[in-house]
Amino acid sequence: xxxxxxxxxxxxxxxxxxxxxxxxxxxxxxxxAHVCYSLYFTDFVGEAVFQGDPKATLGSRPQKRYEEGVRxxxxxxxxxxxxxxxxxxxxxxxxxxxxxxxxxxGGLLFYCIGMALMALTRAKLSVIVFSWTAGIMYSTLFTMxxxxxxxxxxVSTFELDINGAPKLGSGLRGLGTDVAIISSMVFLAQxxxxxxxxxxxxxxxxxxxxxxxxxxxxxxxxxxxxxxxxLDL
Length: 233
Prior knowledge:
Growth Hormone, Chain: A, mainly alpha, 9 helices, two-stranded antiparallel sheet, single chain, 3% strand
């Protein structure tokens, strides 16, 4: 059995095949889109939907509306958790029936549309209804990238030849390493959002920008997902 050196192992992290880089880019967009929802959602509901103000005087009407909105937003996140559970039960069957590319791109576009409609309507009903799309995004995040990486390793194929046929890999790559690289995108997503989200909200003057940004990033993820190598999945 061939044993690669430590330097080769480290270089395999830096110089990834295009197929893995596209999964990383897609996963980064997806995590950024989801983090917008998971970290800032209740703030959006409290300010944009309920017209509250977290900086208002304690006990004032705007401050009470904000707290009421935050509590109501928790119901939306409960719907998100339920939809994630339900979708996780059927996503494998969906992949078998509609193929991986359709499920991956479709799930991201579904979330994109849901967040866009939530930002446009800013209503209590939309908070409950469109939060279900966030569960589909979350389930997709923890399913599709790892399914694809595992499939690449299973068939030892990370690229296509000039005729579009699968090309067997000549180097040794670790499945655990590639899974870790894909998973690390969540930390990069959190870091990037922490740098820019405050500025985005300040420039726009509304927390609706958070949900709009989530929709845009999900759309970017859907575009990059169309460039992923799916092989026979």
